[in-house]
Design a protein that fits this description.
By secondary structure, this protein is α/β, with parallel strands linked by helices. Helix content is 42%, strand content 18%. A hairpin with a 2-residue loop joins β7 and β8.
Length: 539
Amino acid sequence: MSKIGTPYRRAKLDESDGSYDAIVIGSGIGGLAAAALLAKHDNKRVLVLERHYTAGGYTHVFRHGDYEWDVGVHYVGDLHEGTDLRIMFDELTDGALQWEFMGDVHDRIVIGDQIFELPAGKEALRAKLKSYFENEAAVIDRYIELCENVVRASRGYFAEKAVPSFVSRIGGGLMRRRFVNYASRTTREVLEELTDNQTLIAVLSGQFFTYGLTPGESSFGVHAVVAQHYFEGAYYPVGGASRIAATILPVIESRGGLVVTRAEVDTIVCENGRAVGVKLADGKEFRAPVIVSAAGVPATFGKLLPAELVLQHGLDRHGAKMRPSIAHVCLYVGLKETAEELGLGRTNYFVYPSADYEADHAAYAKDPDGTLPVTYLSFASAKDPSFQQRFPGRATIDVMAPAPFELFEEWADERWQHRGERYESLKQRYAERLLDVLFRFVPQVRDKIDYCELSTPVSTLHFAGYQNGEIYGMAATPDRLCERGLRAQTPVPGLYLAGQDVGLLGVAGALFGGVIAASAIVGRDIGRKVRKQYMRKRA
Ligand SMILES: Cc1cc2nc3c(=O)[nH]c(=O)nc-3n(C[C@H](O)[C@H](O)[C@H](O)COP(=O)(O)OP(=O)(O)OC[C@H]3O[C@@H](n4cnc5c(N)ncnc54)[C@H](O)[C@@H]3O)c2cc1C
């Protein structure tokens, strides 16, 4: 088994003997979860194919010199003992993945000149919010209760995604109804029913960058699930985000499976209307009775599946009402002192110019050189207790903001690191604005930066394969949450979907997208089975 700080083994495709029970396209947490559960709960030998040079999808990390940065894991909630997520992570990793609690305050929401802290623990959060908004105590109670109700209602909604299509046709509406009642409305619509205090609404939706849409655009379903996810605090993987894949891979491979990187699937091979294998970009073909696509719904139906099947089953409709989630820029900062020496805390910052998130976004859409509508600061080297052991005397910071894909699109086909001067100067302008925000909140790092590098939406396209540089799959609008077709079983026999477009965005949502796929394939609720095993062990 790999150790903390040891890059996991990257298998080569010629190690494969070609006979697998299932093929998973994409090694993000959604694909890896599906693969590990099929291996553990159905004795399947699973081949996972990943186009990137490393496994993990958005949970991968990258290194430069003495620095390492995470890409898509800054914090994960709901990981205290006994939660479904913790139990499932322990199952997927055979208990090998450890999590570090981020501490009493995981998020600081900065609105103009005001700072609001979100503490760990539902009661602490309630008390803190009431201390900020003394006249809104009843609203805050109702809000917390509402989020919890929505999360309870989501159980039927997500369970429906794993049942066979004929069951869904008969009982699916009922299973989904309670959640859809909330999910079909925007966050702003629901919050404005609770209060007209716009600052309170801005604070309650102050984590919206973690799901990418302002309250005026996001589904309240996604808002409630994400907000509740962090009620009891947040965690970071010990050893960095790459430990997620590193600890799941052995579970897949010890049962005869294989995870292969630099293996881009070009086409899902279908015969007589059934998915029977995949063809890679280099022409190699692999066959299996079960194909799981964890590469995102737009890529699966827009690129991988033969067009005639897409049309035959009306799968193009999935894209019609939906759009990609936001794209972003991220400044990866490296410093030649430790997080402790620099006084970096673990708390994330969400920095907003004002409480009118929609107006700020609209202004930025018109003038991308103007004020950033939100900037996010994350301090991984302070969150990971093993960082000093792995990278002595170093610290890292991620600074992120949304950025329109269209602004960078002209460089989409240019080679990485060869995109020319205009691209570099656009990057420079973004880097300067992100550094301004960083120095406002962490002024002590001003003269200490040893290295920094900006990723853009075309970097996301290049490394993650998302066509619009989107970071959360399909945008979490009410339409997306209410779309009935986003289920594990597709109308194409043998083809299943996993990952964030089936579950929900975020590490937890995508992981459960993998649980949903595996449950649909084996015809049993694996989540429930794993929980029962856990309860038996504890009894
Ligand atoms: C900048 C950023 C910050 C984030 N921060 C957080 C956070 O703090 N907390 C949190 O919970 N979530 C966060 N997220 C979201 C979270 O990382 C994702 O929602 C989740 O990891 C998605 O998992 P997935 O398996 O569905 O997809 P992905 O991780 O995108 O995996 C899909 C995989 O499929 C591969 N693939 C695509 N096409 C092919 C093909 N044709 N052949 C082979 N392979 C293919 C891709 O290379 C990729 O590895 C963040 C995301 C980003 C980008």
